[in-house]
Amino acid sequence: MPVRTVNQLGEPCWIDLMTSDPARSIEFYTKLLGWRAVDTGAGSGRYTMFFHGDAAIAGLTAQERGNRDFWTTYLAIDSVDETVRAARAAGATVLVHPQTVGDQGRLAVLTDPAGAAVGVWQAAGHRGFHVDNEIGTPVWHELITRDFNATIAFYEEVFGWTPIPLSDTADFRYSTFGHDESMTGGVYDADAMLPAGVPAYWQVYLGVADVWASAKKVSELGGTVLREPWDSDFGTFAQVADAAGAAFLLGQVEASPRPSD
User: Fold this and answer.
1) Ordered structural domains, the chain, with CATH
2) Where are the annotated coiled coils located (predicted)?
């Protein structure tokens, strides 16, 4: 499994789950994706790290029962304080003010001008996920927005994105973003699709070897299949929610070839 050694500035570098039922969520992801959960201790607020093999993949934080469970995507930046200042000047709202996480790094959580919550991470001891685009790891990050042009302009200005339009029609407006030719995510114009009152949001895709089999397993583990598996020009996907209600997508990927002996 190739190890990710660099997280490009402005791109997704970490995901974590806010859950009202940590035990149930841990059981769900360890059984669905083969993750290994490690409690980092009381000193870190009982933050749980998920590993795929030896590679750090994601995190989990407990929240009060009754709140909606959700995944947060974090973008890599070199200064939390400077990024927060730039984001506020460009119309963002600060949900979680800059804070230091031990010797691991600094974070903040923002709401972009269209209403989507996104985290920012200034790495120190923890640089982010160690592997991606593999089975059992994050494979895509997607921003669903109501104000496509303003959203693109915000992330260009604050995070240095260079979006590449994939489609620009009234029926399907979508841009990818990434570094050089390596795309890591996309922005979808969902203004005509989102129900009234639903804000913009980020969603994460997790890689599996067989979307159909994994969607069935989601149900067996107490989760919900929100959209049955479908095939597209870009792959096979399914939209699901875990056993505590946090939504994400499954994306089918091929296993990496093993190194030659």
Assistant:
1) 12-123 (3.10.180.10), 138-252 (3.10.180.10)
2) none
